What does this fold into?
Amino acid sequence: MTSNINPKTIFTGDNLPIMRGMNSESVDLIYLDPPFNSNANYATPIGSEAAGAAFKDTWTLSDVDIMWLDLIEAK
It folds into this structure.
């Protein structure tokens, strides 16, 4: 079966509706990165060994660096 999706396509959003529209033979990789846009900021308590270490679980497409998109396109 041939793919019904153009190669090198990046999808964002809920994977189930997107994948239901794909031919199963066209999928090589599904990458999930939980906690799935919880819109939370995870910071460590002041005074802990990890103080200052934190991450923000919010992002937009503008966070995708053009360099990475160029790299994907080149492959």
The chain has a mean pLDDT of 71. The chain has one domain: 15-74. The two ends are 23 Å apart (CA to CA).
